[in-house]
Amino acid sequence: MSYTANDNRYKNMQYRRCGKSGLQLPAISLGLWQNFGDTDDSTIYRKTLHTAFDNGITHFDLANNYGPPGGEAEINFGKIYKEDFIPYRDEMIISTKAGYYMWPGPYGEWGSKKYLVSSLDQSLKRMGLDYVDIYYHHRPDPNTPLEESMAALDLIVRQGKALYVGISNYPADQSAKAFEILQQLGTPCLIHQPKYSMLERWVEKNNEAVNKNLLQVVDEHGVGCIVFSPLAQGLLTDKYLKGIPADSRVGRKLPNGALTENGLDGNVLNKVAALNNIAQQRNQTMAQMAIAWLLKDTRVTSVLVGASSAAQLLNSINSINNIDFSSEELDAIETILK
Question: Tell me, what DSSP letter sits at residue 121?
């Protein structure tokens, strides 16, 4: 074994109960959507994983299609897990997902029982795990009955392949139905994973079908909420305020849904520059304030951050040192974001 975890790893991290479950998650979780593929430096992402765990991040979030190419993030995570983290398995929350395209033919994406069960079997093999802690349906399927997709999640828990289940990218009305189905099946939904940031606020908007927004729906059903893309893939940092760095996501022209140069809208960058001024007054980086802004809402269980280096991850972790906002700060932020 080349890695021994920091004895003080639980000293500073904050943990929040996930909905009404018995599970607590760290306020900051590590997402492996980017930076863990076959074009990335294994020495760097290995150090990032070590840094995460050494600082109380117990939750590592993957999906079948993360890479690139699809499956590679799970393979790379599995290698490091085998070499460094096996002794700490009972201290780790490992999640994966299925829903997007993964292999050819009619069973390689969406939400059929065939796809969801087969995909998890593949993910477990890639990571070298007997089970995952959380298994998500990654997106709603317009052609498969919701009852079938939720029954697959229930089956997977009963098979012992996952301890908990969740959904991701579901609107409020479909989320409410999914929660009710899973409750009836006896496998309550643990968590919902939506995209949410200062620049992406659909979870706050009223859904006419249920006359509520997503945050209200998860709260009423006792379901946790873990948000992804809290920094809008780097927009909510100071990274692009003076041009495009060569080592940034835009500069590297990453595939797999990463930010592109077309996403660097001048109006958005002006807003970020104004927000950055508020962050500086709070003695935070722009990224830290963006994460803190999400964590101010107690309905948010955890914020999923990506990291291209250990230093970048530590910057995100330090956001938990100041998650309180004055009413004046919140008003100023809203004025900028309008």
Answer: H
